[in-house]
Amino acid sequence: MNKSKVIDINNITAGYDNHKIALKNINLSIYENDFIGIIGPNGGGKTTLLKVILGLLKPFSGEIKYYSDEKEHFIGYLPQFKLIDEKFPIIVKDVILSGLSSKKSIFKAISKEDNNKLEKIMEEIKITDLKNRAIGSLSGGQLQRVFLARAIISNPKILILDEPNTFVDKKFSSTLYDLLRELNKNMTIILVSHDLGTIPQYVKSIACVNQTLHYHPTSEITEDMIDAYACPLEVLAHGPVPHRIILKHGGNKDD
Ligand SMILES: Nc1ncnc2c1ncn2[C@@H]1O[C@H](COP(=O)(O)OP(=O)(O)OP(=O)(O)O)[C@@H](O)[C@H]1O
Ligand SMILES: [Mg+2]
């Protein structure tokens, strides 16, 4: 059975200030149940690509097509790094619930159904005890969990995560990956990560973004990505890369 396409990115060039190019001639087709890991150096354009997909940044040229009937909860997004003002007067549960609808006022009484979703997700991500805390008082990792809960509470068709494990500890990192694997059964996932030692075990394909994009339909990180695909060594040096996942040119295990 053919998988259905959910997003088609056609020859996108995008950037900032009307002329500063961050992405050049990008092509990528995203299908149902894909789990794409996006890797690349700092400043390579990963976040920019996500912003284009989310419609937050209008590309200079090219087009992007969405295949969906429901617009509202089509994409869930966990942004990279978020700085929150300590005095920002909003508590954890309201942040998570705001992921359910952009239209609903956070001051409205919540339905029993929404409350059940909230409790379930807080339990899963182990933040139940933070429920009534002001978000400005949370640690980086706690905040990242809260925003993860916000991104997935609406059960979106596509989940986009921009370096979700920058702040979280090792233990939660593996909980996170297990959760993503479970969600991937009925959700398309796009994950930006520098955690190259781990993501090949979870993702189904890899896109290397460094102004241009090179798509690899398998999850192995190969020498090709380092040499030919402008994914420089320092990218791989970000994390401990188990030797066995680095493949030789022809795809043979290098051990
Ligand atoms: N708002 C902005 N205005 C101008 N230039 C920007 C803006 N945001 C990003 N850039 C530039 O665009 C390029 C791509 O940035 P982007 O944030 O997409 O990189 P990234 O791959 O996500 O990097 P990192 O791994 O550090 O998160 C960089 O040169 C960056 O300086
Ligand atoms: Mg980024």
TrEMBL record:
SMART domains: AAA
Stretches assigned to the ABC transporter domain: 7-235
A molecular-function term among this protein's GO annotations: ATP binding
Originating organism: Haliovirga abyssi
Similarity comment: Belongs to the ABC transporter superfamily.
Gene3D superfamilies registered for this protein in UniProt: P-loop containing nucleotide triphosphate hydrolases
Superkingdom: Bacteria
Keyword Transport applies: yes
PANTHER family: METAL TRANSPORT SYSTEM ATP-BINDING PROTEIN TM_0124-RELATED
Residues passing through the membrane, by range: none
The entry's keywords: ATP-binding, Nucleotide-binding, Plasmid, Transport
UniProt xrefs under Pfam families: ABC_tran
Name of the protein in its database record: Zinc ABC transporter ATP-binding protein
Signal sequence range: none
